[in-house]
Structure formats: C-alpha cells, structure tokens
Amino acid sequence: MADSTQPLLSDSNSSESKLPPPRTLDETIEQCIGNFGWAQFLQAALVSFAWVFDAQQTFITVFTDSEPTWHCLDSDRCNSSSNLCTLPNQTWSWDFNPHVSTISEWGLQCAGSLVKGLPASSFFLGCLVGGLALSTLADSSLGRKNMLFLSCLIMSLSSMLTAFSTSIWVYAFLRFLNGFGRATVGTCALVLSTELVGKKWRGQVGAMGFLCFTLGFLTLPLLGYMNNGNSWRYLYVWTSIPTLIYCCLVWCFVWESPRWLIVKGRKEEAVSILQSIGSNAITMSFSNLCLDVQESSNPDVYDALRILVKKPWSLRRLLAVMAVGFGIGMVYYGMPLTLSNLNFNLYLGVVFNALSELPAFLITFFFMNTIKRREALIGFTALSGISSVLIASLGQQLGSLQIVLELVSFFSACTAFNMTLIYTIELFPTCVRNSALAMVRQALVFGGVFSPVMVAAGRENQFWSYGMFGLVIGLFGLFVVGLPETRGSVLCDTMDEEETKNLTKEHIIG
User: Angle, nearest 10°, between helix axes 185-195 and 50-59?
Assistant: First the structure.
C-alpha cells in the first residue's frame, strides 16, 4: 500500500515518485482536495450566504421608498382620482402613519422624480464608485476573505446608520455609502467559493450564491409585510444586525482562497488550507510545492486592472462581456421597479419576481456543465427582450398576461445574469479574475442606474420602460458572439497560461 503521507508534488528526479507533478494549479487542487466533500460544501455555503444581505440592500427601497396609499377626508373637494398635489392638506390623509415611508415622512409626494429617486440612484452610484475603488483589492493586497469581511462590515454599519437619517439628503448619502460597501460583496463571495473547488463543481458552487440571493430577495416582501404600518427605519435595523453577525462568522470560520495565496507566493498558508479541506488521504509538502505561477509578486492596488487591459485578447473579452452585462443589468434591476406601473399587487409582484429566480438558479445549478455559454446567453437575452417589447407594444390589451410576460422577461434576465458571472470566471485567469468579475458586475449595476429614469418615464408611455428594456437586452446580448466557448475548460492562473491555451485552441481549429 502506498504511503498516504507522501508529498503530493515530489522531486521529478526522484525514482520513488509515485505521482507526477500536476502541470497547473487547477490540477494540483483537483488532486489534493479530491471529491466535493463536506468541508468544501460548508465553506461554499457560508461564503455564498453573503448574497442574502446583498439582495436585501439592493431591493430594500422598493418598500422603504414606496408612496403610501391615501384617502379623502372631504368628499366635496376630494376624490380618489384627484391629483394629490393639487388638494389642500386638510382634505386628505395617509392610510397609515406617515413614518411608514420616506416619501410620506418627509413630505416628498409632490417632489420631482429626481428627488424621489435620489436614494436609489445614490445606492447604485455608490456601487459604481465602490466597485472601482475596491474591486482590485481582492486580487492584490487584501485577498478574497478580507475583502468580503470589509464589504459586509461597511454594508452592515451603513445600513444601521440609515435608520437614523434626519432628511432625504442624509438618507441618500448613507445609501451611497451602503452601495459603496455592497459593491464587492457578490464578487468576492462568488470568486472565493468557486476557487475552493475543482472545475467539476465550479458551476454548482457558483449557483449556490444565486440561490442565496433569491432567498434574500424573498425575505424582503416578508419583512415588508411584517413591518406594514410601522416605520421604514425598522427594515434597515432588521437587515443590518444579521449582516453584522455574518461578518463575525466570516472572520472566524472562512478560509482564504488557496489559489490566491499561491499566486501571491504564500504557499505555506495555501498548503495548510488545502490539507484542511482536502478529502484525499494525500498530503502536501511546502518544500515540494513548485508551481509555474509567474505573477506571484505583490502588485499595487491597480496592477490587476493594468494587467487585464494590457493584452488585446483580454481587453476584447472584457469589453464584450461588460456590454452583455450592461443590457442584462438594465432589465434585472429595472423589472422589480416597474411593478408599480402594472395593475397588480406590489407585494405579490415582488414575491413572484423573487420566486422566478428559483428556476433560474436550478437551470444554472443542474445544467451549467452541459449547456454552451454563448448559445444560452443569446437565447435568454432574446427571450427577455421579446417579452418586454410585447408588454410595451400591447399594453393594457394583455390584461393579466402583462404580469406573466413580466415574469418571463425577469426570469430570462436572471438566468442570463447568473450565466454571465460564471462565464466571466471561466474567461479570465486567477491573477485578474476577481477584477474582471468586478468590472462585469459594474457593468450590470451601470445598467441598473438608468432603470429608475426609464421606469419614471414609463408611467406615461410604457415604451420608455418595457420597450427600451427589451431593445437594450436583446441588442447588447449579441456581443457574446465574439467571446470564446468555455464549457468544460480548465481555469488558468496567469495571463501567459491563458494566452497559450487560446493559441493551442486556434491551432487545433485551424
């Protein structure tokens, strides 16, 4: 029987070597951790749970900033169809306490759409700024775990402070700060969870985060219903405390990515983590862990982005996948906001939208290893676009079919959203993967920045909301044609390794 304590990678000149040294880091981790065991599952589940709080902060303003219902006090001078802004204050009243919403508490019912949408716009703007400022830290100095902890901590504390806002301007600033912290939560969680496993389980582990995001989305209408009639501030308190507890769990129990540690030259730490999560009986010796990882120096904060855009092939990939993400993000973040434009119950609409993410998750989880990335993205973006355009073109003629088409469009956008993130992981090597994924998420959020403006314009003419949503996601989805197919591919670790793999594929095809 072979000695179970022999090094995983031994000297190639030794005649006693039982295992040939793996040629890539991906093969090394595959050989060390073996099958997908409980250690990897628990780590992936804990890391992916960050998406719950990500979803809550992303869509919380659907309830905190909604315009409450009202009723007339003087039937002679007021009726339900009256313009609220033209009525004397003594002729009408809110159905609930004014503190149920920021709109009623601060008397914003007659303010312009820019002021009403300022908190939501500030949040997405914070996401953009935070993504640019923090995205490369996970690849360069902080690493995946520390960046996840810091992002969740900022998101938690800013959410708690939001509950004490004294004006719309303070509220908007704190929403900006919340978005700034939230910007890298999903990116770090997705990259860290997928880098702890081999390629066989990469798609399934990545899909765990999408399931957690769905669960977080589903908790919002529940929290909103429980808080019905109470102050909007409680929603921020209820979502901030669990996030703070989660930060403590991340700090104490989550491991750093062994891939990132090896790329940074911290091989002893990487070996220790691989020994902890590995299901094989094989152990590793630090002195024999000699991998061909050339970009292992500690670059400055923006080195990762400079490396990413230096190569023409990586820049083309980045721009193409960001264009696809922009179109998907506009629909994904915009659809829940347009529910108020449909003649349908807001709470049920949010619930149905959240539930539509479940089949999107199931498709990603069970079929990601078998479906082709490019064909699937083109199909789902086209389906989402067609459904949105139908809503805009037929309008009230559809009746209850409007909500059905809205759900089809949102479901397609959700599936395309999930696939785009996993596709991005496969398109870029370890040294720039987190930065590339962060830039794609920035493109998704950037699409969301335009959504509130289109939703406001769509109240008068649905072409400016559903019509534009459909055209943008359908046309921008075509950019995926210029990207390579990555189904079943091995994750590369350096730019040179990825370039060599591309040249080999081109040579084989040629």
Answer: 160
pLDDT digits (tens, 9 = 90+) for 155-169: 999 999 999 999 999
Helices (H), 232-372: 233-253, 258-263, 267-277, 303-310, 312-338, 346-355, 357-367
The Cα 476–Cα 311 span in angstroms is 23
3-state secondary structure (DSSP) of residue 15: coil
CATH 1.20.140.10 applies to domain 40-69+92-256: no
Q: Give CA–CA dist 418/93, Å, rounded.
A: 44
Which among 105, 97, 63, 29 has a CA at the least distance from the CA of 226? Answer: 63
Residue (of 374, 17, 379, 50) closest to 192 by Cα position: 50
Please enumerate in sequence order all residues whose Cβ is within 8 A of that of 271, keeping only pairs 6 or more positions apart, or say none.
Answer: 258, 284, 285, 286, 289
Residues 425 and 486: beta-carbon distance below 8 Å: no
Helix (H) or strand (E) holding 45, with range, is helix 38-48
| DSSP states along 382-427 | HHHHHHHHHHHHHGGGGTTHHHHHHHHHHHHHHHHHHHHHHHHHHH
Q: Average pLDDT of 385-414? A: 87
Instruction: Give the single-character DSSP code of 483.
Output: S
| pTM for the structure as a whole | 0.77
From its phi and psi, is residue 356 left (phi > 0), alpha (psi between -120 and 50) or beta?
Answer: alpha
**Tokens (6 digits) for 196:** 């702890």
d(CA 400, CA 410): 16
What per-residue confidence (pLDDT) applies to 14? 44
Is the CB of residue 447 less than 8 Å from the CB of residue 327?
yes
Instruction: Tell whether the torsion through CA atoms of 170, 178, 150 and 435 is positive or negative.
Output: negative
**Residue 383 in contact with residue 486, Cβ under 8 Å?**
no
Cα 428 → chain centroid: 17
Q: First-to-last CA distance in the chain?
A: 46
Where does CATH 1.20.1250.20 sit in the chain?
40-69+92-256, 299-509
In whole angstroms, give the CA distance from residue 185 to residue 270: 23
**312-338 pLDDT tens trace:** 888 999 999 999 999 999 999 989 888
User: Which tokens hold the place of 499?
Assistant: 């370039």
Q: Which CATH class is domain 299-509?
A: mainly alpha
Rounded Cα distance between 213 and 201, Å, is 19
Reference 250, options 199, 188, 195; nearest CA is 188
18 touches 6 (CB < 8 A): yes
Separation of CA 145 from chain center: 17
Contact at 8 Å (CB) between 195 and 187? no
pLDDT reading at 10 higher than 70: no
Per DSSP, the three-state class of 93 is strand
Secondary element (H or E) of residue 72:
strand 70-72
Which amino acid does the sequence have at 490?
Answer: V
